[in-house]
Amino acid sequence: MKSVRWGIVGLGNIANKFAGDLALIPNCSLQAVASSDSARANEFARKYKAKNSYSNYTDLFRDPEVDLVYIASLHPSHAALSIEAIKYGKGVLCEKPMGMNAKQVKQIIQAATEANVFLMEALWTRFNPAFEQTHQWILENKIGNLRYINATFSFNGLNRGVDSRLFNPEKGGGSLLDIGIYPLFLGYHFLGIPETIKASAVLTKEGVDEQLGFIFSYPKAQAIMYSSFAHDEDMQARICGELGEIYMNSRWHETGEIKLVLNGKEYSKSLPINGKGYTYEIIEANSCFLNGKTQSSKWKWQQSLDIAILMDAIRKQTNIVYPADN
Ligand SMILES: NC(=O)c1ccc[n+]([C@@H]2O[C@H](COP(=O)([O-])OP(=O)(O)OC[C@H]3O[C@@H](n4cnc5c(N)ncnc54)[C@H](OP(=O)(O)O)[C@@H]3O)[C@@H](O)[C@H]2O)c1
Q1: pLDDT by residue, tens only, the chain of 326 residues
Q2: CATH number of the domain encompassing residue 248
Q3: CB-defined site of ligand 1, < 6 Å
Q4: DSSP-H helix ranges across the chain
Q5: I need a labelling partner for 4 at 20 to 30 A (CA). Which of 26, 192, 222, 255 fits?
């Protein structure tokens, strides 16, 4: 079986989780890792058995033995790094959000189109088995016409401080781009582009959203979504139709536990999660790459662009502006 050789750039929190899951998947290997800090790169390479480690990202992009690059740095660098990797002919799996705004997402898509390489946003929930089962139930019209979606994502990150990536605007701080993107994804995925959006935010004095609510309205449905770094919360998602409901248990974006309710009868389904759950996006990226596909049919470029456009619209209503917008 042909194998996919991965490179990872930006060796922080998510890169560690991803590398752990990568090791669980048979037809791929960790070829190279790169960090701005050479000691971190060497240690990461040792821990996850990468063949090469680099102290700058461009050297990894130049490595002829890397097929796919996972961009795991902070949001403001996603676009420039994705475009640079693509220019070196690499396929790219870019952490969410793919860009700071729709303009950046368009630029990445343009680069991937011109280079004819694989590109996907690492919206891992899309590939989670419980999400796939939910999707299947909806395709089978089990719960009828969808009328209401409610999803939230919040945790208490207040103690991380104003210079952390959660709160510093220069680091892409704010709940929408980091975690609000998940509820937004759920509403958009099942109901599409809304007719109208209403958003309201609690902003920090640095101007990023530490708390945000938004409603997507459709002719005959509403999606009510929320994200916050200010408090903990039990994160369930609800998808309700005229014939029944689906509940995704806490924390819904990574859950293996879902429930279908029809006429008051509950059908619970438990789907085991392999590793931390990043395995499914890795399998999808490997499969696309090995089959010569430039995009996944499950999470297409246009879908990444649509959610970037929706996030821009929410930010416009709530006056959240990043340096990348200027
Ligand atoms: N899918 C998920 O479940 C999930 C979970 C968490 C985060 N994420 C996404 O992953 C990305 C990284 O998040 P994280 O929690 O892993 O972040 P992190 O641990 O704070 O940082 C990740 C890496 O970004 C680079 N970096 C950090 N601060 C920087 C700065 N001031 N300037 C330039 N580079 C800097 C560093 O790379 P070097 O090693 O090169 O120095 C760092 O190791 C974010 O875009 C986030 O949205 C996704």
Answers
A1: 689 999 999 999 999 999 999 999 999 999 999 999 999 999 999 999 999 999 999 999 999 999 999 999 999 999 999 999 999 999 999 999 999 999 999 999 999 999 999 999 999 999 999 999 999 999 999 999 999 999 999 999 999 999 999 999 999 999 999 999 999 999 999 999 999 999 999 999 999 999 999 999 999 999 999 999 999 999 999 999 999 999 999 999 999 999 999 999 999 999 999 999 999 999 999 999 999 999 999 999 999 999 999 999 999 999 999 999 99
A2: 3.30.360.10
A3: 10-14, 35-37, 40, 72-75, 95-96, 122, 124, 165, 171, 178
A4: 13-22, 38-48, 57-62, 75-87, 102-115, 129-139, 175, 181-191, 279-290, 301-318
A5: 255
**Which residue carries 């958003």 as its tokens?**
199
For residue 34, the enclosing domain spans 4-123
Closest C-alpha to ligand 1, atom 5 = 14
pTM score: 0.98
Residue 9 CA: nearest ligand 1 atom is 40
Of all protein residues, the one whose alpha carbon is nearest to atom 41 of ligand 1 is 36
* 205 and 318 both lie in a single domain: yes
Is 258 found in the same domain as 137? yes
